[in-house]
Amino acid sequence: MIRLVKNELVKISHRKGIYILSLIILGILALGVILDKADLGSLIEEQTGELYYTMLEESLKEYDLNDKDEVMWYIDGKVELDLHELLKDLDYSSPLYYYIDNELNSVLTDMYNAKYVNKNDVEYELYKAKYDELVAGLDNYDWKVFVEESKKEVEKQIDTLKASLDIAEEDKDDIQDEIENLSYQLKALNYRLNNDVAPAYHTTSYMVDNYVSSAMSYSSMNKDESTYKDRRELVQNRTLIAEFKEAEYKIENNIVPASDVTLQDHVTTLFIGSDMFIIIAFLIIAGGIIAEEFNKGTIKQLLLRPFTRGKILTSKIIAAVIATFLFACFYYLLDIVDFVILNNEFKSIFDPMIVYNFNTQSIVEYSTLGYTLMNILAVLPEYIMLFAVCIFVGVLTTSTVACVISVFGVNIAGSLLESLLPEKIAAFLPTSCLNFSKYLFGGLSYNKYQTLGGSIAIYVITLVVIVAITFIIFKKKDIKNQ
Predict the structure, then answer these.
(1) Number of helical H runs and strand E runs in the chain
(2) 52/27 same-domain check
(3) Which of 268, 389, 418, 425 has the smallest set of CB atoms within 10 Å of its CB?
């Protein structure tokens, strides 16, 4: 058997398709690195950006300020131009950029509305004075002052609401909800002050903002899962819960992402679903491993040797699996190296993965490797099934083209049937039981009739049937006329 597998691996190593695919992947990744190092993207963005604002400035001269619709477009353009003048020399991730982009935007809009829509000179002058004051104070901008003011305002609102609890009995629940929402905001503001996290367009600030937004959603949602009749709503509800619990844990334990784009995020998302390049690779390997033997007539020579047909087919499958695995390792390693070169970031791979597990209703810390392996195991059955279908069609038709069509056909037909058939019947489709990623950490399928146990049973039965029929056909296949 070992000798047969070695021979099959040698045959696979002579396939030009694998080398062509590898060169295509290398070319795509190398081109990405070259373009990044040349910084063509930034250059093009800078040139097109300046051209855009020049064209915008010229277009404003053509608007009819007596037309209501055109006045609104004119105001939007004016605000955009004024902000651009203030922001063009600032670092996008700086607190000052964030402040101008968010605070001065509304003041400018109000100012131009007063002038061109309301046509109220007094109102316009008031907004203009406020705007000029804010612009004059930009040189001495201190984000902590504004966060402290926001904190005091939130604390004042909480105290006011707490004082009204004893009076407004009928609105007690609504007041409690409002206090809860404000407490989330207060927690975020305290985190900013205690950890020197300015409101800005950068990773740590995004983490704080994500905590507040997810907390608001969590606070307002219905947490009684028994009341959900629609499974999709329940799954979305669980997604929001997980987002909040994970964001809260990160805030409480000060777990900050390394940068906006991390190697950890890249690696852990690589294995959520099947990859097109891997599918193409195993189609080249598995699709030809049987069909080419028949098409070239070498199957007869193989059968003259003292090996049973069962051993021959088994050796081919093992060799194809090994070859596909090696290609996958090569492909993913290239992808990861490419990411590190492009983003100059790899330390995040050692950070913990924070995941909310619905089975234990608690936060669990995983290593990046552990989390990735779980995702690989969850998506591996899909590869195995498509691999089995490819081998089956190859034995049945002795056509490489048929192998390729069958794999893509299975995916397309499965998706089509899932959308057309009643939910109860669709739950038993083998194509809906290939990827088990949705069940990780207590997750649910969108199909309410589908369970993890049921999916495993359908998957195993389908796989066993396909493999058994493949071996039966191969053993009984007439080789004389091949």
Answers:
(1) 19, 2
(2) no
(3) 425
Nearest partner of 403 among 274, 277, 280, judged by Cα: 280
User: Of 140, 173, 199, which one is at a domain's C-terminal end?
Assistant: 140
Cβ-based neighbour number of residue 321 at 10 Å: 17
Cα separation of 355 and 441, whole Å? 8
For residue 333, the surrounding DSSP H or E stretch is helix 309-343
Residues 322 and 334: their CA atoms lie apart, in Å, by 18
pLDDT tens per residue across span 5-34:
777 777 777 777 788 888 888 888 888 777
Give the single-character DSSP code of 477: -
For the purposes of burial, counting CB atoms within 10 Å of the CB of 393, is it exposed (0-12), middle (13-18) or buried (19 or more)? buried
CB 127 within 8 A of CB 105: no
CB 385 within 8 A of CB 391: no
Q: Using CA of residue 363, residue 366, residue 368, residue 369, what is the dihedral sign? A: negative
Query: Are 244 and 205 contacting, i.e. CB atoms less than 8 angstroms apart?
Result: no
Yes or no: say if 345 and 263 are a contact pair by the CB < 8 Å rule. Answer: yes
**482 in a structural domain:** no
C-alpha dihedral sign at 299, 301, 302, 303: positive
- The tally of domains found in the chain comes to 3
Question: How many C-alpha atoms does 113 have within 13 Å on its Cβ side?
Answer: 7
438 & 380 share domain:
yes
Question: In the predicted model, is pLDDT for residue 46 greater than 60?
Answer: no
State the burial class of residue 200 (Cβ atoms within 10 Å of its Cβ: 0-12, 13-18, 19+).
Answer: buried
Q: Which residues contact 351 (CB under 8 A, 6 or more apart)?
A: 255, 257, 258, 262, 264, 368
Q: What is the DSSP letter of 271?
A: T
419 and 284 in one domain?
Answer: yes
Residues 360-382: tens digit of each pLDDT: 999 999 998 899 888 888 888 88
Mean residue pLDDT of the chain comes to 84
Evaluate whether 363 touches 245 at the Cβ level (below 8 Å): yes
Q: What is the pLDDT of residue 150?
A: 93
Residue 289 belongs to domain spanning: 2-38+262-476
φ, ψ of residue 57 to 5 degrees: the values are -65, -40
Q: Which pTM was predicted?
A: 0.78
